[in-house]
Amino acid sequence: MKKQYQIEKQRAVQGFRRMAVEANPAIQMMLPMADIVGMLQQGVGNLMREAGLLLMQQVMDEEVRQLAGDRHQQHDGRKAHRWGTEQGYGVVDGQKVPLRRARLRTTAEDGSTREQKLGSYELFQRSAPMEASVWDKMMRGLSTRNYKAVVQDFHNAYGIDKSTVSENFIEASRDKVKQLMERKLDHLKLAAIVIDGTPFKDRQMIAALGIGCDGAKTVLGLREGPTENTEVVSALLRDIAGRGVDFAIPRLYVLDGGKALAAAVRKMAGQAAFIQRCIVHKKRNVLDRLRDDRSRCRRACVAETASRANGPEPERRPQPRRRHGRDADRS
Question: Would you call 318 helix, strand, or coil by DSSP?
Fold first, then answer.
């Protein structure tokens, strides 16, 4: 459920868009040539950024004029009154940049006054572009410690310190996980599904990975639980089925040796489930029970046993014997 301030912001944005379509005022920005030359001293990028800030200011001023009319003139259709200015900010290229915005107040039917939000200012303040910028840069290896030094384009920009960047990354990650857990899967043609769990602190994260007929891999879903028990895995499979995966289609299921995974798959897919024990897990289980003093030998034996289990060993070509000592011709 949205809060009152969120509803007011949404109404302000809708009013601004309606005004832009119906009135469609023209905004003209004029810059002295001397100012343009000064901005160009630091490159064309600096000119575009500074000009963009001026344009944002003019867009807000035009919205104020549409709501409150021109200064010092009578306006019969006035919807609000000017109430001074205050310092604010806008998000530009993933950075918070200071903006000076006008304040408006409206009068209700009962005579009370309240703040009139500017739809243009609310659009300039959207955090989604900042979160997307943080996610994109950090997924490419940029750390929170070096973020400000790398991305700061405006000398007075803020909101790009380590703690703020970390908060934006967490928020963006939450949105990414939500999209992952809610996307439809009915368009996938899966030949196999791999299900496994990995420990995270004192919990287990159960993941399902789908392998398509073309070999493409897709993360189908995630579930958190205390252990790899049947209830957690069954909830994961039900969620996947609800998003479009048909478990009545025969396919291969690659699992570890846990009974909970196999029981949940058989309960969901029935006779259509062809279960394959993961060889990697089998190797680990065998190696954990062997002595540690001959690690290379035991690993080679386990690998040879696994390869024989997968199919007949190919015929080996005879190798020539190696001679030891000097050649007989030289003796």
Answer: coil
Handedness of CA 61, 66, 70, 71 (dihedral sign): negative
Q: How far apart are alpha carbons 56 and 119 in whole angstroms? A: 12
Confidence class for position 219, pLDDT limits 50, 70, 90: very high
Q: What does pLDDT average to over the chain?
A: 82
Give the pLDDT confidence of 245-288 residue by residue, as tens digits: 999 999 999 988 778 888 899 999 999 989 887 777 667 666 66
Q: Among residues 36, 157, 40, which one has the least CA distance to residue 98?
A: 157
Listed by start position, the domains of the chain span: 1-69+79-126, 127-182, 190-277
Reported for 217-222, long-range contacts at CB under 8 A and 24+ positions apart, including other chains, are 218/185, 218/188, 219/180, 220/185, 220/193, 220/245, 221/180, 221/181, 222/177, 222/180, 222/181
What DSSP string describes 219-256? EEEEEEESSS-HHHHHHHHHHHHHTT--TTS-EEEEE-
Contact 264, 230 (CB under 8 A): yes
**Separation CA 328–CA 283 (nearest Å):** 47
pLDDT digits 0-9 by tens, 139-167: 888 888 888 887 877 777 878 888 888 88
Strands 203-212 and 251-255: unpaired
Homologous superfamily assigned to 190-277:
Ribonuclease H-like superfamily/Ribonuclease H (3.30.420.10)
Of all residues in the chain, the percent with pLDDT exceeding 70 is 84
In this predicted structure, what is the pLDDT of residue 3?
Answer: 78
**Structural contact between residues 115 and 102, judged by C-beta atoms closer than 8 angstroms:** no
